[in-house]
């Protein structure tokens, strides 16, 4: 977890490969569907371009299908899911059904000014259509309203690891791996 620009996607790939499991990024799956012009992509794009969350039913079904794929049978790392309380509940159900367990939740924290700088930079290099100033502002609001409350939920469950997301990418990776070292997959 972490606000837009915290570095979730960057860290998820490296951390997942060190555990030899897939990183499942809802944002990446939506963007792939947008560029392929699928029905899911057409539906998702309206929300993404406005900085809003794609509706839970759409997102939940997509994640459910993805974690049923063979490469996720040995475990997986989720990037950008769950983001709402309804998604938390849905994930609990999915995990029960697959026989897995939710072992850890990592939240990356980054100074607000740094977040805006990173996103503006990303808009210049990657050309992501949702990295414009007003859409960034809306994504930050939506994160604060809908996703920040999940931090307490997972803290109460004893699953939360708060990691400082400031600094160089490899330093942050080391912090995430160090935080997870004490976690025993059950
Ligand atoms: P960021 O965290 O920087 O906003 P992502 O690539 O993770 O970037 O997500 C981009 C967009 O995809 C979000 O603004 C939202 O519209 C959609 N999205 C991604 N994950 C979810 C989710 N779990 N629930 C609803 N919408 C999502």
TrEMBL record:
<keyword id="KW-0808">Transferase</keyword>
<protein>
    <recommendedName>
        <fullName>adenylate kinase</fullName>
        <ecNumber>2.7.4.3</ecNumber>
    </recommendedName>
</protein>
<keyword id="KW-0547">Nucleotide-binding</keyword>
<comment type="similarity">
    <text>Belongs to the adenylate kinase family.</text>
</comment>
<dbReference type="Pfam" id="PF00406">
    <property type="entry name" value="ADK"/>
</dbReference>
<dbReference type="InterPro" id="IPR000850">
    <property type="entry name" value="Adenylat/UMP-CMP_kin"/>
</dbReference>
<dbReference type="GO" id="GO:0005524">
    <property type="term" value="F:ATP binding"/>
</dbReference>
<dbReference type="InterPro" id="IPR033690">
    <property type="entry name" value="Adenylat_kinase_CS"/>
</dbReference>
<keyword id="KW-0418">Kinase</keyword>
<dbReference type="GO" id="GO:0004017">
    <property type="term" value="F:AMP kinase activity"/>
</dbReference>
<dbReference type="InterPro" id="IPR027417">
    <property type="entry name" value="P-loop_NTPase"/>
</dbReference>
């Amino acid at each position: 977890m972490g606000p837009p620009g915290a570095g979730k996607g960057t860290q998820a790939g490296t951390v997942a490969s060190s555990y030899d499991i897939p990183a499942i990024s809802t944002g990446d799956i939506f963007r792939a569907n947008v560029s392929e012009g699928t029905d899911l992509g057409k539906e998702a794009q309206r929300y993404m371009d406005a900085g809003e969350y794609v509706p839970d039913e759409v997102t939940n079904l997509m994640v459910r299908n993805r974690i049923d794929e063979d490469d996720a049978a040995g475990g997986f790392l989720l990037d950008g899911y769950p983001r709402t309380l309804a998604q938390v509940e849905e994930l609990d159900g999915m995990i029960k059904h697959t026989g897995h367990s939710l072992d850890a939740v990592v939240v990356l924290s980054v100074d607000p000014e740094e977040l805006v700088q990173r996103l503006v930079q990303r808009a210049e290099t990657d050309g992501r259509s949702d990295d414009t100033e007003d859409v960034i502002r809306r994504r930050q609001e939506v994160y604060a309203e809908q996703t920040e409350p999940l931090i307490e939920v997972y803290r109460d469950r004893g699953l939360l690891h708060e990691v400082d997301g400031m600094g160089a990418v490899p330093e942050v990776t080391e912090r995430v791996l160090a935080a997870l070292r004490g976690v025993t997959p059950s």
